[in-house]
Design a protein that fits this description.
single chain; 429 residues; alpha/beta; Rossmann fold; pyruvate-formate lyase- activating enzyme; OB fold (Dihydrolipoamide Acetyltransferase, E2P); 3 domains; 6-stranded parallel beta sheet; 5-stranded mixed beta barrel; 13 helices; 19 strands; binds S-adenosyl-L-homocysteine; binds iron/sulfur cluster; binds FE3-S4 cluster
Length: 429
C-alpha cells in the first residue's frame, strides 16, 4: 500500500475536499499516514483567505524540502485555494513541488500524481455533477457539499476567484449521499456552501432541507454559510418547523456600519440584519446565532468601529469569529485608499474579542441548571472518564454519566457548570 500525508488549512469545505482527495486516493491504493516522513505522497490542501493562512502554508512547505532531500522519490503537491490563486508560480517558487491542483479539479488527482509537474487549475463547469467519493473518519457527523463556488464578490474576499462560479449539486445526488451516510451510522450532516441560501437545482434550499429532513435515521441537519442578504422568511420558518434542522445559524455580519457594509458589497444594512435576527428569534425559540466580523476594513473610522461594537452589544451573539482585515490579491478592497495600519486593526480586533468573550460567558451562564439534548460524539480527549457532544445549538458539552455513553446516542444533560467555550453537565438517562 502506498502512503499519503495530507495537511489541510482553511474552512470546512477544504477539510471535506481533503476527505474526497483521500477517497479518490484510496481507490488508487493509498492509505493515510500522520507523519510526512512516512509518506510517498504529501499534499498540502491550502487556504488563502487571509495572509496568515498563506504564511503558515509556505513555512510548512519550506520544511518539506528536507523530506524530499532524504527521500527524492516522494511526491509533493499543492491543492486548495493557494494552488488556484498562484498556479504555475508555485512550481517556480518551490522547485520541490511536483504538482498544483486547484479545488475545482480534485477529481483529477490521479492525473496530477502521474504527470510531471502538472498545473491543473481550469474552471470546471462539471464539478457539481460529479459524485466524488469521500473517505471520512468514522464518527457521528459528516460534511456534505451542496454547492460550489461563489458569485457574491464581497470586496475583501478571494473565494470567488479561487472556487469559481456558483454551482449547485442536484438534490437527488445530495439525498442519496446522505442516505448512504445514515446507513453507515452517521446521525448528523452539515450541508456546505459559501451561500446556501442561493442553492438552486430542481428545488431551492428550503425544498432541499425538506427532502433531507425526510431521510429516516438522520437526526440532525446543520448548514453553513447563510448570507444575510438572501435569508428569507421561508428559510426561517423551515428552521422552526423541520424537526431535524438544528436551532443554530451562522450569519456573518462583518461590520455594524452601513457605510462599511456598502464598501464590502454585502448588500444589506444593519437595519435589514437586525430585522432578520428578530424574526429568527421570534420564529425559532432558543436559536443560537453566531457571526463573522472583520476589524479594520479600509477607511473604517473609530465611529464605524463603534457601530460594530454596538451591534455586538445589541445582538448578543452566541459566538463570533473575528479577523483583522487582510488585503488579498485580486480583490477590490486590497486596492482601496485608506488602508489602516496593523496596530489599529489589531487594537479594534482585540476590543471586539474582549467584548464578545464577556457576552459569550454571560449567555452560557444562562444555561446553568437547564436540560439540553446532546448528541454524543465519544469520550472526551482531555478527560477519558468524561464524554463529549454538542447541543442542537452547537455548544460543546462535557458530560459526566454513570454508564458508558455510546457515540451517536442522544442524551438529556443537565448543565452544571457553564464555561466560555464549553459546558459541563450530567447525563440524566
Ligand atoms: N462564504 C462565507 C465565508 C467565507 S470566508 C460567508 O460569506 O460568510 C469566512 C470569513 O472570513 C468571512 O466571513 C470573513 O469574515 C472572513 N474574511 C474573508 N476575507 C477576509 C479578508 N480579506 N480579511 C479578513 N477576513 C476575511
Ligand atoms: Fe466570500 Fe462573500 Fe462569497 Fe462569502 S459570500 S465566500 S465572504 S465573496
Ligand atoms: Fe476555504 Fe480558505 Fe478557500 S476559507 S474557500 S480554503 S480561501
Amino acid at each position: 500500500m502506498k502512503k499519503v500525508y495530507i495537511k489541510t488549512f482553511g474552512c470546512q469545505m477544504n477539510f471535506h475536499d481533503s476527505e474526497r482527495l483521500l477517497g479518490l486516493l484510496n481507490a488508487q491504493g493509498y492509505s493515510a499516514v500522520e507523519d510526512p516522513r512516512d509518506a510517498d505522497l504529501i499534499i498540502f490542501n491550502t487556504c488563502s483567505i487571509r495572509e496568515k493562512a498563506e504564511q503558515k502554508f509556505f513555512s510548512q512547505l519550506g520544511r518539506t524540502k528536507h523530506v524530499k532531500r532524504r527521500n527524492p522519490s516522494v511526491k509533493i503537491g499543492v491543492a486548495g485555494c493557494i494552488a488556484q490563486q498562484r498556479g504555475e508560480e508555485l512550481l517556480k517558487r518551490a522547485p520541490h513541488v511536483d504538482f498544483v491542483l486547484g479545488p475545482q479539479n480534485i477529481s483529477r488527482i490521479g492525473e496530477a500524481i502521474s504527470t510531471e509537474r502538472s498545473v491543473i487549475t481550469e474552471e470546471n463547469e462539471e464539478l457539481h455533477t460529479l459524485d466524488i467519493p469521500a473517505f471520512r473518519k468514522k464518527g457521528v457527523s459528516a460534511w456534505v457539499n451542496i454547492m460550489y463556488g461563489c458569485n457574491n464578490f464581497c470586496s475583501y474576499c478571494i473565494v470567488p476567484y479561487t472556487r469559481g462560479r456558483e454551482r449547485s449539486r442536484p438534490a437527488d445526488s445530495i439525498v442519496s449521499e446522505i442516505r448512504m451516510l445514515v446507513s453507515e451510522g452517521y446521525k448528523e450532516v452539515t450541508l456546505l456552501g459559501q451561500n446556501v441560501n442561493s442553492y438552486r437545482s430542481e428545488t431551492d434550499f428550503v425544498g432541499l432541507l425538506r427532502m433531507v429532513n425526510g431521510i429516516e435515521g438522520l437526526e440532525r441537519i446543520r448548514f453553513v454559510t447563510s448570507h444575510p442578504k438572501d435569508l428569507g422568511s421561508d428559510l426561517i420558518n423551515a428552521i422552526g418547523e423541520l424537526d431535524k434542522v438544528c436551532e443554530h445559524i451562522h450569519l456573518p455580519l462583518q461590520s455594524g456600519s452601513d457605510r462599511i457594509l456598502r464598501l464590502m458589497n454585502r448588500k444589506y444594512t444593519m437595519q435589514d440584519y437586525l430585522k432578520k435576527v428578530e424574526l429568527l428569534r421570534a420564529t425559532v425559540p432558543g436559536i443560537a446565532i453566531t457571526t463573522d466580523i472583520i476589524a479594520g476594513f479600509p477607511t473604517e473610522t473609530e465611529e464605524d468601529h463603534q457601530a460594530t461594537i454596538r451591534a455586538l452589544e445589541e445582538i448578543q451573539f452566541d459566538g463570533i469569529f473575528a479577523f483583522k482585515f487582510s488585503p488579498r490579491p485580486m480583490t477590490k478592497a486590497s486596492e482601496m485608499k485608506g488602508q489602516l495600519p496593523e496596530e489599529i486593526r489589531l487594537e479594534r480586533l482585540n476590543e471586539i474579542l474582549r467584548l464578545q468573550d464577556k457576552i459569550t460567558e454571560r449567555k452560557n451562564a444562562l444555561l446553568k441548571d437547564k436540560t439540553v439534548e446532546v448528541l454524543v460524539e465519544g469520550s472526551s480527549e482531555s478527560a477519558p472518564e468524561l464524554f463529549t457532544g454538542r447541543t442542537r445549538t452547537n455548544k460543546i458539552v462535557n458530560i459526566r454519566a454513570d454508564r458508558p455513553l455510546m457515540a451517536g446516542e442522544t442524551v438529556k444533560v443537565r448543565i452544571t457548570t457553564p464555561h466560555r467555550h464549553s459546558l459541563d453537565g450530567i447525563a440524566l438517562s
